[in-house]
Amino acid sequence: MTDNVSREPMLDMFIFETLQLLDQLEQSLINSEKESGFESSIDEIFRIMHTIKGSAAMMLFDDISKLAHSIEDLFFYLREEKPENVNSTEIIDIVLNGVDFIKNETVKLENGQEPDGDASDLIKEIRDYLGNLKSINNAGSDSPDSESSHTLEVEKDQKYYISSNKAASTPKSHKYEAVLKFEEQCGMENIRAFSVIHDLKEIADVNYFYPEDVIDGGGKSENSEIIQKDGFRVVFSTDLGLDEVKERLSHTILLKSLDVYVINEDLEDIMGDMPDTRETELKEQKLKMDGKANVLNDSSQASEQNEHSSGRQLSNEKKTGPSADNTASSSKQSVISVNIAKLDKLMDLVGEIVISEAMVTQNPDLEGLQLDNFHKAARQLNKLTNELQDVVMSIRMVPLSMTFQKMNRIVRDMGKKLNKSIELEIIGEETEVDKNIIERISDPLIHLIRNAVDHGLEDPDERVAKGKPPAGKITLEAKNAGGDVWIFVKDDGRGLDREKILKKAREAGLIHKPENELTDKEIYSFIFTPGFSTKENVTEFSGRGVGMDIVSNNISMVGGTIFVDSVPDNGTTISIKLPLTLAIINGMSIKVGKSRYTIPTISIKESFKVKNEAVITDSEGNEMIMVRGEVYPVLRLHKFYKINTEVTNINDGIIVMVESDSRVICIFADELLGEQQVVVKALPKYIKKVKGIGGCTLLGDGSISLILDVAGLVS
C-alpha cells in the first residue's frame, strides 16, 4: 500500500467525498421507500455507487470497491430490465446494510485506522438477491448485453493496475476520443485520470491516453498541470453506443466538462500525433464539418462547445466575448471546500483584531483628550471590523439540512424494529448555525428523536383507540430568532406522564420545595437528571436512565438551553435555544471588587436595583428575593468566589437575573460596566475546571474578564 504521508491529501478527499455521497444515498433510498419505487432516484443511486466504486478502487480499498460494485450491478439490472414484482423495502434494507459497512470503513480511515472489514457476506447476499430477482423475472443472467454479468466475472480477479500499453483484445465496434476537464484546483488530477482509465477498462479497450504516465509516473506535478490546462485525453474502443459512453464518463468525480468524439475509421491513425494539440484540433474540426463526429457535453456545459470544437484553446488566445466556458467556470467555482482548521485560525485572528481594536479605541491614555479625527477613524475601523467579523462568521455557518436529513434513517430503522408507522416532517432545514455547534448537537438530536419514537409515539392500535391516525408524526423544526437559533422536536404521541415523573423525582430525592409550588415545566425538567427514567423495561433504545442528562450537558456546552413542554395524549415539544456562534458573543460586563466578569446576554432576563423589603431569608439561611410575586435565590459573587469588595449592602449593588434550563437565579454584583462583544478564550489547561466559569476574554484596556457559565451557577 502507498505510503500514508504521500497519500494523505488523496485520503482526505476520498473520505470527504465518500461520506457526502453516502448521506445523499441514504436520503435517496429513504425517499424511494416513501414513493414505493426507484423510478425517480435510480439514476442518482446508480451514479453514487459508481462513483464510490471508482474512487475506492483508485485508493486500493478492495472491499469497499467490490461492495459498491455489487450494489451498482443490482441497480444496473433494475434500471435496464425494469423487473416487475420488486420489493423496494427488501432492496433498501440490503443496500442500507452496505451503506453502513462503507460508512464504518470510511470512519476507520478518518480515525487513522485500517479499513479491515470483510464485505464478502454482504456481497454474497446482494448477488444472491440479484440472481433470485433475475430468475423470478425470467431475465436470465447470460444476456450478451448485460453489463452486470460481465462486471461480476471481472470482479473476481479484479486488479487495480492498468498497463499503459495499448490493449490487445477482441476488436470493438466503435472507437471514441474523450476529453475530460476537471474542476479548477480540485487537486490530484493525475490520480483522477488514472481512475478514468481504470473505469474504462471494464467496458472498453483503452488504446491511448495523454499524458501517458499518469499511472507509472502518476505523482509528477507536470502531469497535473497538463491535465489542468488541456484536459485528460483518452482514445478507446468499445461496443457501447455514444450515449452509454457519455453516461459512463459523466460520473467522474469533480468533472467540469466532457467531450466525446466518434473517430472515423477512414482517417489516418492519430496515435502518433496525439500530443500535437493543433493537429488534433484540425482533425476534430474536419470531423465536425463532415458531420462524422458527435460532440457530447456534460449537462452543466451544454453550450460550452458552440464556438470551439474541443474547448482546448491556447492560454494566450484572445476571445471576443464572454464564452459559455467562462460562465460555467465561474458558476462552478462559486463554492469551494476549505479545511475547518483554516476557518478556526481565521476566526481566531478576527477575534484578536476585535480585541486589538478595543485596546486602541478604549486606551486609558486617550481619556480627556479632544481627538475628533481619531474618533472618526475609530468609528470607521469599528465598522470595518464588524463587517469582517460578520463575513467570517457567515463563512463558518452551515445549514442544518444534513444533520436533519440523517434523522430520516433513524426514524425508519426504529419504526421497523418497533412496528410503528412514523412520518418525519422537517421544517426550516436551511437554517444556518456555526460549524462547531452543528458537530455538537448532532448526538443530542439523535437521542431526542429516538426518545420521541420509543417513549412518545404509541403503537398503531393504541393510537387508533384514542382516535388518532395509526401513523405517528414527528416534526423537526429550526428557525432564527434574533441572534439565536431555535430547534424544536415535536411528536403527537402520549405526552409526558406528570405524576409518574413526580413520583420518580420524589423517590430520587430531587424535590426541594413543596410539590404544589412546582410548575409543569419544573417537573418535566427532572427528566434531564442523571439516571432518571420512567421506562419500566430496559430496551435497546431506552430505559437505562442515561441520555437526557447528556443531551442537556451537550446543549449547555455550546451555550444553549433546553425546555420541555407536554400535553397528555397530545404530544411533547422539546425546544432548544442555541447561539449562532461560539467564538464571539455579546456579553454584559460586571464588576465585583477589582475583578470583572462577563455574563452572556443570551442568559440575562433583566437587571435592577432592589429594596430591603424585597429580600427574604428562607429556613436554611439562603438569601432570596421576591420579584413580582416570584421568589428567586440570590448568588453573591463576592462570597461565592471570596472576593474583597466594599459593596456588600444589597441596596448599593446591582442584581442581574439570569436563566438556564427554566431555572432562574439573581446574581449580585457591585456595578454594571456595559455591554460589548467579547472573544471567548478557553481557560489554560493548567487551570482545573472552576465551577461557574466558562472561559475568559481580554478587554479593551488589556485586563482579563472571566466569562460566567450560567448553567453551572444555576445548578
UniProtKB/TrEMBL annotation:
Swiss-Prot/TrEMBL keywords: ATP-binding, Chemotaxis, Cytoplasm, Kinase, Nucleotide-binding, Phosphoprotein, Transferase, Two-component regulatory system
**Alphabetized Pfam families for the sequence:** CheW, H-kinase_dim, HATPase_c, Hpt, P2
- Asked if the record carries the keyword Cell membrane, the reply is no
| Ranges where the CheW-like domain occurs | 584-715
Q: Which reaction does it catalyse?
A: ATP + protein L-histidine = ADP + protein N-phospho-L-histidine
So what EC number does this one have? Answer: 2.7.13.3
Q: What class of enzyme is it?
A: transferase
Q: What is its main location?
A: cytoplasm
One BP term from GO: chemotaxis
Q: Which InterPro entries match?
A: Bact_Chemotaxis_CheA, CheA-like_dim, CheA-like_homodim_sf, CheA-like_P2_sf, CheA_P2-bd, CheW-like_dom_sf, CheW-lke_dom, CheY-binding_CheA
What's in the GO CC field? cytoplasm
Annotated region (Disordered) at 298-331
Domain HPt: start-end pairs: 3-109
What start and end residues bound the annotated signal peptide? none
Know the name of this protein? Chemotaxis protein CheA
> Source species, please?
Acetivibrio thermocellus AD2
